[in-house]
Predict the structure.
Amino acid sequence: MTTQPRFIRLAAADNVVVAVDMIDAGKRVDGVTAAARVMKGHKMATKPVAVGEPIVKYGQIIGFASVPIAAGDWVHTHNCAFAAFERDYAFAADARPEDVLPLAERATFQGFRRDKGRAGTRNYIAILTSVNCSASVARFMAEAVNRSGMLAEFPNVDGVISLVHGTGCGLAGEGLGYEILERTIWGYATNPNVSAVLLVGLGCEVFQIPRLMKDYGIEPGPRFQTMTIQETGGTAKTIEAGVARIREMLPLVNATKRETLPASELCLALQCGGSDGYSGITANPALGKAVDILVRHGGTAVLSETPEIYGAEHLLTRRAESRAVGEKLVDIIHWWEGYTAKHEGSMDNNPSPGNKAGGLTTILEKSLGAAAKGGSTTLRGVYHYAEKIDRNGFVYMDTPGYDPVAATGQVAGGCNVLCFTTGRGSAYGCKPTPSIKLATNSDIYARMIDDMDINCGDVLDGVSLEEKGQAIFDLILRTASGEKTTSERLGYGDNEFVPWQIGATM
């Protein structure tokens, strides 16, 4: 007996199906004989498609036939091409009020109560830097504290972390690039997972610490201190002085203890990386179900990665609470079109070789799957990179598609927990915000078991998206309460702080 390969037709209007199992040439699938082998996660045409006609998956256009396609053909980069096309934004057509649970009925987690109503899921001391020139000193400080063993005396402190970057000088002192860096640094300093901050500079850089403090009305105090290498007297003296400052901070930070807090205090960053042909079928829509649950409990979820919602933005504008919110998103899309054209690129440059090997063909296809992370509730706000998230519910932040840069913007915006879906097996973690890794298929989950927190591949075996979404939501609560993620146990997060750099390096 031969086993019939499994496949998925995602919408009645589709002219392709997705292979769950490998489809060998000659196999009958959906009433069509495969003309060539179709690998897992890849697509097979179920009807002829003439040159220039759209290829449809999810009931949406994912590309256009670049050569004649016959029923049974493997559909991929050799015969499916990207092209821009008009989309009906239908602003706010599908907006609706959320059925948010009363406070007494909301799920809870064990978190750290901060000032101004904020809540942390971790309790870190962060050493931030104004410039790359102070990066090594910041790392040396953190290493010295961790080697000393002094943290053993302070069990409520999750760690002393150095969050360093490669810019801060050689950039214009005015304009978008500077504003983004300033927002990002201050956003990390005020993220609710950070209890105290030491900001270290060199002294002569473009990104001046006194200017940051003036721009944001910052006063130094027990939980926010600064120093520069030049004023302190060089590398060794700065490390010594920094360790002394941290030693003074530790009892204050340790005094903060976890308490019961409502899930409405959670701000969830949504990320996907190393996507494959299953991402939009398993992990992303399952995460979308978890997002819907979180929103019902009064929480916030932040979708981002603008190059990876390109071609699916019309599905978000329909859900916008107002025309103004939807138009803000479209304006951002147009900015990206101009940005890529200026640098002689294309929005279709986004899918990586790994994405394509996993079955994705164009940015349109990738985006339709990526947008599923956002669930189905009304889009309540659109934010620029690293802006403070000040709305509950489902919102959007403009970021690049590059995962570390995108997540950095979300954490700067206030996200205190993160979910990251992957089909190819991204190696990623985040500090100070714990990152939960969701595998889109069972093969990568088994192969990279030490990096994955949840297997969503069993959705292909019959587990419902609703059941998987509930499991993800439950893990979000446990993680927010202190349960370590795989990336935390592996030690990820020190090198994943990557502010978005825009503008010339001077």
